[in-house]
Amino acid sequence: MLGIRFTDFVPNLNHGSNFESLLKIFMQLLTITSGDIAEALNWMNQMDKKYDLTNKNYGMGDFIQDLKDKNYIDENEDDSVFHLTSKGEQTIRRQSLEEIFGKLKKSSRGNHVTQHSGLGDESTSDRREYYFGDSIEQIDVTDSIKNAQINHGIDDFKLTENDLEVEERDFKALTSTVLMIDISHSMILYGEDRITPAKKVAMALSELITTKYPKDTLDIIVFGNDSWPIEIKDLPYLQVGPYHTNTVAGLELAIDILRRRKTSNKQIFMITDGKPTCLKEGIRYYKNSFGLDKKIMNKTLDQAAKCRKLGVTITTFMIARDLYLQEFVREFTKTNNGRAFYSSLSGLGDYIFEDYIRNRRKRVK
User: Fold this and answer.
1) Alpha-carbon distance 201 to 224, whole Å?
2) 3-state SS string over the chain?
3) What's the rounded Cα separation, in Å, for the pair 265 and 343?
4) Which pLDDT belongs to residue 106?
5) pTM (two decimals)
6) pLDDT tens digits, 199-257
7) Each residue of 163-172: pLDDT tens digit?
8) What residues of the chain score a pLDDT lower than 70?
9) What local confidence, expressed as pLDDT, does residue 116 receive?
10) Which of 157, 200, 228, 298 is most buried by its number of CB atoms within 10 A?
């Protein structure tokens, strides 16, 4: 009998596994620092001194060199400033997706199967008579000719509307989504970082749609005093500004974007932590941060009603617990016939994921 031999345990001998664990920390810090690589590496050095993230076989210098060699970052030769590569930006989005939603496999067709039949890409074995409005592609030519022969005989062959048979197809619910992110100053007010969870959710949702549902569309807009669209690649660098909250401007831009989309399902996800406090009237800004301003509230409710008339559902994710703000959100939600979630920062992603997937299985009305 050989018995059991005991040796000293030496962790992290595998450089590859050590790099992967450090990479996860690095990507989290990049999200918090809005893509500032120098600041993220400085934090990692401080954490390494305090918590021994690296060891004698693999140090922070090795990690930085691996980041460059593996094309996560590149260095400007003129000023030695690090920049994120497209691979690095995608890695942040993918890590956010895995953190919030779990690992999801890419769909083969990028569609959402519903329990309803209708216009779609995938044929079924079911057949029915032709109804006005059915597309030509759905007509089963073989069965239709067979019906014509039975109904009219071979000698006097003719094909009428009553002879036509169509094949049922699984309905695919394609969806256009606009994600609105509040970047007003209150998103970092009172020592609470609310913008980082919002960025993580936006990155995760964008990665979910582009990989699993590529036929869906996602537009991302930010709103402060004004509102403007941003690209998916801009998300890691998103920061709050010295802004008030012009919710009306955000909704107007979202409506304008969705009007140009040809999909049947259209919706708005709005992440905010505060009340609307700003309007733009011509070149002048009307602002009031004290209480709920009736003028601003009424304009905001008008936009909610407009979205309802256009068939656009607004789901509001409220990262605030103030009772008077929740009362306004309830009125806003009732006006739009939408939904509202009063979420903590940690549960924001779960709420949005569940709501997004649920809406894929039905027509949003």
Assistant:
1) 19
2) CCCCCCCCCCCCCCHHHHHHHHHHHHHHHHHHCCCCHHHHHHHHHHHHHHHCCCECCECHHHHHHHHHHCCCEEECCCCCCEEECHHHHHHHHHHHHHHHHCCCCCCCCCCCEEEEEEEEEEEEEEEEECCCCCCHHHECHHHHHHHHHHHHCCCCCCCCHHHCEEEEEEEECCEEEEEEEECCHHHHHHHCCCHHHHHHHHHHHHHHHHHHCCCCEEEEEEECCCEEEECHHHHHHCCCCCCCCCHHHHHHHHHHHHHCCCCCEEEEEEEECCCCCEEEECCEEEECCCCCCHHHHHHHHHHHHHHHHCCCEEEEEECCCCHHHHHHHHHHHHHHCCEEEECCCCCHHHHHHHHHHHHHCCCCC
3) 24
4) 39
5) 0.72
6) 888 898 888 888 878 889 999 999 999 999 999 999 999 999 999 999 999 999 999 99
7) 888 876 655 5
8) 1-17, 101-126, 131-134, 168-173, 320-321, 343-365
9) 39
10) 200
Give per-residue pLDDT as tens, 95-110.
Answer: 888 877 654 443 434 4
- Residues 56-64: contacts with CB within 8 Å, 24+ apart? 57/12, 57/13, 57/15, 58/12, 58/15, 58/18, 58/19, 62/15, 63/18, 63/19, 63/22, 63/26
pLDDT, tens only, 43-60? 999 999 999 899 888 999
Which residue shows structure tokens 């941060």?
A: 289
Structure tokens at 274: 């505060």
Pairing relation of β-strands 175-182 and 73-75? unpaired
Instruction: Specify whether the CB–CB gap between 273 and 181 falls below 8 A.
Output: no
pLDDT at 247: 96
User: Residue 33's Cα: distance from chain center in Å?
Assistant: 21
- Interstrand relation of 284-287 and 278-281 (parallel, antiparallel or unpaired): antiparallel
Contact 126, 168 (CB under 8 A): yes
Q: Which residues contact 286 (CB under 8 A, 6 or more apart)?
A: 278, 279, 280, 295, 296
Q: Report the DSSP beta bridge partners of residue 180.
A: 221, 270
Q: How many CB atoms within 10 Å of residue 182?
A: 26
